[in-house]
Write a structure and sequence with these properties.
Elements (H helix, E strand, L loop, with lengths): L1 H8 L5 H16 L1 H10 L15 H5 L22 H20 L5 E2 L8 H4 L9 E5 H10 L7 H4 L4 E3 L6 E5 L1 H10 L5 H18 L26 H12 L9 H7 L5 E3 L19 H21 L6 H14 L3 H5 L7 H20 L31
Helix pairs in contact: 10-11, 13-14, 14-16
Length: 397
């Protein structure tokens, strides 16, 4: 086929080669959503959604939620993100509408951006029609300690679903961090069948550890784009071997979160308190706390205050409001805050810094306001780099 031909050629590509490759990519991308819809309709997969432009929703609702996991974290100068609840609700509603339009049905569950949960965020989900949400096991461990259940062993608390008192209608699932990280970071360097065999052996160990009478639900979650690009042939050999081995195990079956809720017969365990956090170290420190990150939030808060005044202007053109609102959503995305405060001298960090400020400047232009001079000043600065920061990493500890 074309890909094999071009891979064999390796160099000296012609304009015709590039045109054929671009056409092939177009065909693949145009068929992606229909393929996902067909798989979901056959029950082979479950499709969730995420608030539209991938914000850290708990921080939009309350900066102080970051102190639940890190009590001494430094917060932005602004006391709160203006109108955060309305913005989070709008992001949820937009994601649901787009999902239903493309896949023919509303999503049953919501994966929050970066697995970032808080009780205030959870309370928004039942009325939006979501039956489940998810995060990582460090968030669960923090929550159990705060709930007075720190004496439970990992095998006693992890392999099941939960319902938080803040939103008992929403089932919560928490990822097994070591198993997920093996797929995310280790198995790309293994022979595909060896990796699949190792993964099954670790699931067998979990099976022996799960308390008698429990179903034993193992949640494996990872960043899609941060895993398969490092595997030979995008993980084909590993996944083919893994699915083949799973089919041969009578004690093991795959499921979706919604199917587990409907058919497992296992009552979710009560969680009296949910400690706010994300799947990155169980905290929000990747997005808030460093001086540069906090300054970025303050700039966003200032722009949002100007947006609110613009929207409240009598007789304002609603088409202009819609364009400004879409641009505001872009500025609320999580990745702008991720990179600042780590290795600020890396070209990628400097590019994110510049792009963030240019997006805020574009928002001001849509509001018919001159961008403030502060947006011409870089946020990034010379700073020591924590090698454990950056893109999605293994769980700490």
């Amino acid at each position: 086929d074309l890909l094999s031909e071009l891979m064999g050629k390796a160099r000296g590509f012609t304009s015709d080669d590039r045109a054929r490759l671009a056409a092939l990519i177009g065909d693949v991308v145009s068929g992606l959503l229909p393929r996902y819809r067909a798989l979901a309709e056959r029950g082979q997969i479950e499709l969730s959604c995420t608030p539209h432009t991938h914000p850290i929703a708990p921080l939009l609702l309350d900066f102080a939620s970051a102190r639940e996991a890190v009590p001494d974290v430094t917060l932005p100068r602004e006391p709160a993100y203006p109108g955060g609840r309305v913005r989070v609700q709008a992001q949820i509603d937009s994601a649901k509408e787009i999902h239903a339009r493309h896949f023919g049905r509303p999503p049953g569950g919501l994966w929050p951006g970066e697995g970032a949960l808080s009780e205030a965020f959870l309370r928004l989900l039942p009325d939006a029609g979501f039956g489940w949400s998810a995060s990582s096991e460090t968030v669960l461990a923090n929550s159990l300690r705060a709930s007075g259940q720190a004496t439970l062993s990992r095998s006693e608390y992890l392999y099941r679903s939960y319902r938080a008192d803040a939103a008992p209608a929403v089932a919560l699932f928490f990822r097994d961090e070591p198993l997920s990280d093996l797929i995310g970071f280790e198995y790309a360097n293994w022979d595909g069948r060896d990796a699949a065999t190792d993964f099954l052996s670790k699931l067998a160990v979990v099976r022996k550890q799960v308390p008698a009478g429990d179903t034993g639900l193992v949640s494996v979650m990872l960043d899609g784009e941060n895993a398969w690009e490092f595997y030979p042939y995008n993980g084909y050999f590993f996944l083919d071997a893994l699915y083949g081995l799973i089919e041969t195990q009578s004690w093991l079956r795959t499921t979706t979160f919604s199917d587990h809720i409907d058919s497992s017969g296992q009552r979710p365990r009560d969680l009296s308190r949910l400690v706010a956090g994300s799947w990155v170290y169980g905290t929000f420190s990747t997005w808030l706390g460093a001086a540069q990150k906090n300054r970025a939030w303050d700039l966003l808060c200032q722009a949002k205050q100007n947006f609110d005044r613009f929207v409240a202007t009598p007789g304002v053109d609603q088409n202009r409001v819609a364009r400004a609102q879409a641009q505001l959503g872009v500025c609320e995305s999580s990745d702008w805050f991720w990179w600042l405060g780590e290795d600020d001298t890396r070209p990628g960090v400097l590019s994110f810094d510049e792009l963030y400020r240019s997006n805020l400047s574009e928002l001001y232009r849509l509001l018919d306001l001159p961008p403030p001079p502060s947006l011409r000043q870089p946020l990034a600065q010379d700073n020591s780099w924590d090698p454990g920061a950056g893109s999605m990493r293994r769980a700490s500890g």
